[in-house]
Design a protein that fits this description.
It contains seven helices and 15 strands. About 25% of the residues lie in helices and about 35% in strands. It has about 220 residues and is of the alpha/beta class. It folds into two domains: about 5-125, Response regulator (Rossmann fold, 3-Layer(aba) Sandwich), CATH 3.40.50; about 130-225, LytTr DNA-binding domain (OB fold (Dihydrolipoamide Acetyltransferase, E2P)). It starts with a strand and ends with a helix.
Length: about 220
């Protein structure tokens, strides 16, 4: 079954990137693109697309405001350069939240979550990511990653066998990680399947106690349902 999608973003380059990604997936058709969210809402009311890729930070009408008007039967995938909108987006039952710059791997993960219309198996990509550490480049299976810890300009990937230090930001790490990784603190990203114990303020992974910030509690709670 073909999923009909539209893209709403005030940045032409962002639209071009998402159009390219849609073209690379056989069961998605990009029907239309909009730089004006008001025009997009009129189109949605008449054409009823399956998916709306919706930028959050737009003039005149924000993506958050637009999402409250879009029918609940439509899958909303937020796209933004600002991670602080994550909590509010999940409160609106968004299907996913893509942080710019958006990688194709992360885009595929977002579409694959839209059941009962998963991407055909031949389109799925390997669960491996590339990490550059100094003069070395590591290719690691994402299932071996326990959690990520940020300190200064560096990110430490804690895996089942070792630690890998990379010079990158939280947003850069999130763009290449699959959907089962979420940020729970300004300095921590975790793999959900690796959680052993959790409470209101912490999760424990491999006996390590990791703090959960107030701003990320709602997201964690929603993903653990």
């Amino acid at each position: 079954m073909i999923l009909k999608a539209i893209i709403v973003d005030d940045e032409p380059k962002a639209i071009e990137l998402l159009e390219n990604y849609c073209d690379r997936i056989p069961n998605i058709e990009c029907m239309q693109t909009f730089r004006n969210p008001v025009e997009a809402l009129l189109y949605i009311e008449k054409q009823k697309p399956d998916i709306v890729f919706l930028d959050i930070n737009m003039p005149n009408l924000s993506g958050i405001q637009a999402a409250k008007i879009i029918p609940k039967s439509t899958h909303i995938i937020f796209t933004t350069a600002y991670s602080e909108y994550a909590v509010e987006s999940y409160e609106l039952n968004a299907s996913d939240y893509l942080l710019k710059p958006i990688t194709f791997q992360r885009f595929v993960k977002a579409i694959d979550k839209l059941k009962p219309n998963p991407i055909p198996k031949e389109t799925k990509i390997s669960e491996r990511i590339i990490i550059k550490s100094g003069y070395q480049t590591f290719q690691i299976a994402t299932e071996t990653i326990l959690y990520l810890e940020k300190e200064g300009n560096y990110m430490t990937y804690h895996t089942t066998s070792n630690k890998i230090l990379a010079r990158e930001s939280v947003s850069e790490a999130l763009t290449k990680l699959p959907a089962n990784f979420i940020q729970v603190h300004k300095s921590y990203i975790i793999q959900l399947e690796r959680i052993e114990v959790f409470d209101q303020n912490h999760v424990i992974i491999n006996t390590v106690k990791i703090p959960v910030s107030k701003s990320y509690k709602a997201i964690l709670k929603d993903r653990l349902r």
